[in-house]
Specification:
Length: 362
């Protein structure tokens, strides 16, 4: 498994800074020891000049993954400092910003085609990759994840503020992101052939530029032999990103178990409602139950997910770690809860962003 994280580049007043090119240049000059044939590890550009993306190498151990997540954040921040900025794990900017699209032909084409949707995309996500043997195995994992993705979103929610206002959502990033024509939950595919036909049809429609713009909540990676789960906000705390990784891997292992019956699949309309509910209230209200579609307290939905994957977590040696870190997350709240708590304590926007920078590197 591996984790990709997108971050905001901010100045001392908490405003986004369009300095990604300088940050990446500095990072490239420092990066002389990494294996170029090993996936992950490098700092990369994002859609806007106010963002950068880190990625871990593939790994199997949660401790190793946490070390890599922390190292990626530290290295990104070190290069950002050379450009007069800091790295903040905020899924939306609390300050009003006018994003600057990177000087890249594909990004410029996307900006031209998608207009305001593209102009609003100063959003940062957390993407978890889990290895699969082939596309058919991957599609089984994608289909299995459908009912559980809203719970993953609620755990990661970290974007309550938008344009200097409280949006009322725990994850407003998911609302902005959902404007892309391919974003969100999907119907079950059943097999790799159906998945490929669906993607080919979306590209053939002329609406999206290429298969890289297939932004499903969970998809087959276009670069690696993995399932890529894209539903989450970037997490404020590094351990929360690792928790997502552990849960996604356990869901994948559960999906591929010989005794797993996917059973009747929920309708996509129901999943859209469950995803909206998770974005709205995060962990601070009811979620839609992944099991029967009824409202339940968020803690019950999370507990149902953990029960579902407990055998896989135990087999991987991850169960105790997940219980410990999940208890810590539920006690302090996700990123959205923490940001709102800081606001209620009286922090202004600049101080709130500075506090977020500190938590990013906790």
């Amino acid at each position: 498994m591996g984790v990709e994280e997108e971050f905001l580049l901010v100045d001392e007043e908490g405003a986004p800074r369009a300095v990604a090119a300088a940050v990446l240049q500095h990072a490239s000059a420092q990066d002389g020891d990494d294996d170029p044939d090993r996936p992950g590890g490098a700092l990369e550009k994002e859609f806007a000049e106010e963002q950068v993306e880190t990625s871990t190498h593939p790994c199997t151990d949660l401790g190793d993954l946490l070390e890599q997540v922390r190292a990626g954040r530290w290295q990104a921040d070190a290069s950002a400092r050379h450009a007069g900025a800091r790295v903040a794990a905020l899924a939306t900017s609390p300050r009003t910003a006018d994003p600057t699209v990177v000087l890249n032909r594909r990004a410029q084409d996307i900006a031209a085609v998608f207009a305001q949707t593209a102009r609003d995309q100063l959003t940062s996500g957390c993407h978890v990759h889990v290895e699969v043997a082939d596309d058919d195995e991957g599609v089984r994992v994608v289909d299995h994840l459908r009912r559980w993705n809203p719970v993953l979103l609620a755990l990661s929610a970290n974007s309550p503020f938008w344009h200097d206002e409280d949006s009322g959502y725990a994850s407003f990033r998911s609302q902005i992101w959902g404007r892309w024509p391919t974003a969100g939950p999907t119907a079950p595919f059943g097999d790799a052939a159906t998945y490929r036909e669906t993607v080919d049809g979306l590209v053939a429609s002329g609406t999206i530029l290429d298969a890289g713009m297939v932004y499903f909540d969970a998809r087959l990676s276009v670069r690696y032999p993995t399932v890529e789960v894209r539903v989450g906000d970037v997490c404020l705390d590094p351990a929360d990103a690792v928790l997502l990784g552990a849960l996604v891997r356990a869901l994948a292992e559960t999906a591929l178990g010989p005794d797993t019956d996917l059973g009747p699949q929920p309708r996509t309309e129901a999943l859209r409602v469950a995803t909206w509910r998770a974005a709205r209230s995060g962990l601070d209200g009811d979620l839609v139950s992944p099991l029967d579609g009824r409202p339940v307290p968020a803690g019950e939905a999370v507990a149902a997910l953990v029960r579902h994957v407990t055998p896989a977590l135990a087999a991987a040696g991850d169960l105790a770690w997940v219980h410990e870190h999940l208890a810590a997350l539920l006690a302090r709240g996700n990123g959205a809860s923490q940001q709102r708590r800081w606001r209620h304590e009286g922090l202004g926007t600049a101080d709130l962003v500075r506090r977020a920078v500190e938590r990013t590197h906790a």
